[in-house]
Design goal:
The structure is a homotrimer.
Chain A (H helix, E strand, L loop, with lengths): L2 H22 L3 H5 L2 E9 L6 E2 L1 H17 L2 E14 L5 E13 L8 E14 L2 E11 L9
Parallel strand pairs in A: 1-6
Antiparallel strand pairs in A: 1-2, 3-4, 4-5, 5-6
Chain lengths: ~150, ~150, ~150
């Protein structure tokens, strides 16, 4: 593990901190801009992969507005990051994701939680990173790939 | 993202690991020493901001002693760290915080949890970092700033 | 905090991401290979420390097979890492661990959770790290060391 790899690992941690906070706090356009124009969001909680930055943005905005209307604050935690630099110049960033859902109602209730994995193919675009293909797998749904 | 930034980001991660463990394990004086003498702890779960290292320490000690008397082990997890170096030389370290509260009673009950954000203004003091102003916002309370 | 320390801290984060995922996804042999041949796994949830890589592996395999048969997906999150380089050349890596347990039954139930601390004595073996002695303490069990 050399210094270059160390800086890359840290850069990706920082990237996720900013990306997920944008989504959690309703900056949906800024969040969608972290995907490639033809990026894909593939989740086992969805009927089919969402293709293209514009559709990814509009889907996320609809979800955000519904949560906001219900007084729900969602937080995406990323952890256990594993980074692989691939021969084609892309990065495979695999991590765990924990989604915490709180209600801003003053009832001091605990957040509900959801455990997932997320595998991202990231590409460099100048001084920033973009998501080319995101694969989210919820741990509470049957694991098709293990079948 | 250069190597210097990478080292700073990591230094702040390490700072929080040590700071939060000190609080969680009852080293309240050591924890309070990570605030500036006139540091502020501003939380939306408190009636007003706590001002000054001495008052921060005495408030935390009272809370710790109550938890210890009840056999409660609290753990503060910090994640999704975003660091910004500001023009005035201070650092803005924004992160998510998850507070896990376990009972050491052998009943194998799950911890309760609480989701927050924390924005710290950090300053460098020789080879260490100090908190100048901490802003904690619980996600289960109404978001005044969004009103 | 110099660059070398920064790279080491990051290397240990990366080590845990890979080590814990191996265990969580049933690559038990790969996981056990991250312990020294005479490594020790000492947990306050077990009647006595498990000694030696082979016994560590067989114990973990038995636990994994039972979880898999029940359709349970477990995830070990590591956080709040604190690293100390010791005079004898070993590393003391102390961290918090959160164990999330989901059922892959499509019922969309939340994972159960467990809060622990983990103190690892790590040693370098060429370009990899190995666990010499792991001490896991569950926060829901009485704290013997505090008695």
């Amino acid at each position: 593990m050399n210094t270059a790899n160390s800086a890359l690992y840290q850069e990706i941690q920082h990237f996720y901190a900013r990306q997920m906070r944008a989504l959690d706090e309703g900056e949906v356009t800024a969040w969608a801009q972290t995907f490639e124009p033809d990026g894909v969001f593939d989740a086992n909680g969805l009927p089919e992969p969402v293709r293209g930055r514009e559709v990814i943005e509009s889907s996320a905005r609809k979800a955000w507005e519904q949560l906001a209307a219900e007084g729900i604050q969602r937080r995406h935690w990323i952890g256990m990051l594993d980074v692989e630099e691939r021969a084609d110049g892309t990065l495979l960033a695999r991590h765990y994701a924990l989604v915490l859902t709180s209600r801003r109602d003053g009832e001091r209730a605990q957040p509900t939680s959801l455990s997932c994995t997320c595998d991202d193919v990231l590409v460099r675009d100048g001084d920033r990173l973009l998501v080319r293909y995101r694969t989210v797998r919820r741990d509470d749904l049957p694991n098709a790939s293990a079948a």
